[in-house]
């Protein structure tokens, strides 16, 4: 029997496939960190990626005490910056079966603020 998370993942990815976008932002969320990457749907190749772990290695964020939601928003902005640098502007948002609130929503808002369209 499939878990409810796997069912939601399949349902979300099927809808993305129906819309016909060529690239998507996919995320993974653990209790402590969040990872995001822009993936080419046809080839499955990662085009840009960033995580909250990498964010905390940047010197200007090491001294600040950021909440996990604030970290997710900064991850979205940095991912958008890296994607725009490679010429990627329009993407689909694959929430990977997670409910769209909290860190997932903050990451999406950060990516939109950074210049990505979805």
Please describe what this structure looks like.
The protein is α+β, with helices and mostly antiparallel strands. It has a single domain, classed as Nucleotidyltransferase, domain 5 (2-Layer Sandwich). It is built from five helices and four strands. A four-stranded mixed sheet has the order 3-2-1-4. It is globular. 31% of the residues are buried. The model has no long low-confidence stretch (mean pLDDT 90).
Measured as a percent range, the helix fraction is 40-55%
- In the CATH hierarchy, the third-tier topology is known as Nucleotidyltransferase, domain 5
Structural class by sheet pairing and helices: alpha+beta
Any idea what the CATH architecture is?
2-Layer Sandwich
Task: Estimate what percentage of residues fall within beta strands.
Answer: 15-25%
Radius of gyration computed on alpha carbons = 14 Å
List the helices and strands and how they pair.
Layout: H1 4-19, E1 23-29, E2 34-40, E3 46-51, H2 52-57, H3 59-62, H4 68-85, E4 92-94, H5 103-114
Parallel strand pairs: 1-4
Antiparallel strand pairs: 1-2, 2-3
Helix pairs in contact: 4-5
Question: What are the salient characteristics of this protein?
Answer:
4 strands; globular; Nucleotidyltransferase, domain 5; 118 residues
Quick recap of the structure?
By secondary structure, the chain is an alpha+beta fold.
